[in-house]
Amino acid sequence: MVKLILHEYKRCTVVKGDTREVKDFLKKDLKCKWRPHVGPGGWMFPTSRKIELTREMETKGYVVMDGGKWKAPATEVDEDDAPLVELFKKLPTRAPRLPHQVNGLHQQFVAGGEDVNVMRCILPDIVDILSAPREKLGLDGKKMTAKARTELSRKDQLRLREMALKCMRALWNQSQALKADTELLQRSAHHILELIRKYEACGAQLENAKAAGEWKQLRALAGEILAEHKEDEDLAENGEEEEEKQSRTTVPVLGHGTEGLVELALGKLGGKATAAKVVQWIEKHKNKPMVTRLQCALNEHPTTAKDRPEGMKVWELTVRGCLSSNSRFQLVDKKRHLWQLCTDQGEVDVPARKKARAAS
């Protein structure tokens, strides 16, 4: 007869006993997660599902015993190491969060407005005191402590998540990112992903956490920051090879790759933009890796067209012409001259294209 013992470990329940014989049932039917290196190690599931899964185990005819909270077995201490153990017990632990620490950070955040320098200063403290996601507990969940209820009423974690998201996004969207900002964003992104990994280590799903929407946004932003950093590192490593390839190639054809560049600009501008906005975005980001890797050859010479403003560059005309003549882009708002990426690669409305080209 299969005997299973359930132990509570933090927000999880660990299944011990004759689990080898029923591992397929635990994995496929009960959706338990195998976590050998977390706490006591073993098959784990959120404690909020304990009553439900215990009934399913008993329905299968298994003997289910409640082992209470998991207690790590006592380890023998060598006599020579006993003084060190006592010393470690006396070491101070991390200081608890001050009652009004979040209020102080939030006041600086509100007073700073869109000031990036303020965000740069407060972001490390915001991320440092940010708590891991919490699961929506059922009727069998534990009661909140008085401290937790006080923090919940002050909406500490809600404000911390909102501030972290806005500060990281503002620093990341800077056109001239400093090296210090890059390192700060990487540390913040790693810390947030580590909080989420600790929450999911016991088998919980982020979709079922409290404030799941905000945590998903933080996870997506952290992933994008680290992914772009990895791309920059790869580009730096392959820089010498690219320079060697470019030295062997002929002079690129001016205007080559404009279609891909315009598509990138529209995507970064939210999917819709005027021709002027597209030109401004390209001018601002043309030396960044995401643009240079497209190998688009921009003609920086001033145009000789008499009907254009003096000093306008040739590539600006090329971009505007690409918008008005390429079937991949369509004019969706004639009054505001808004362009967007065409989802239907059908026939091009030639008269509309000519009018749009004349207006641009």
Any key phrases for this structure?
360 residues, Arc Repressor Mutant, subunit A, 3 domains, five-stranded mixed beta sheet
Helix content: 40-55%
Q: Can you tell me the overall shape?
A: elongated
Task: Provide the β-strand percentage band.
Answer: 5-15%
How many beta strands in the DSSP annotation?
8
Q: How many domains make up the coordinates?
A: 3
Mean pLDDT: 76
The low-confidence runs, each spanning 5 or more residues with pLDDT under 50, are: 87-95, 247-255, 344-354
**Main sheet attributes: strand count, strand direction, barrel closure:** 5 strands, mixed
| Tally of helical runs | 15
Secondary-structure element pattern, one letter each: EEHEEHEHHHHHHHHHEHHHEEH
What this model shows, in words?
It is a single chain. The protein has 360 residues and is of the alpha+beta class. Helix content is 51%, strand content 11%. It contains 15 helices and 8 strands. It has helices at residues 23-29, 50-59, 82-90, 101-112, 116-128, 146-154, 156-172, 179-200, 212-237, 239-248, 258-268, 275-285, 289-292, 314-325, 350-359; strands at residues 3-9, 12-17, 33-35, 42-46, 63-69, 272-274, 329-333, 338-341. It has a 5-stranded mixed β-sheet, with helices on one face. Strands 6-8-7 form a 3-stranded antiparallel β-sheet. The chain is elongated and about 90 Å long.
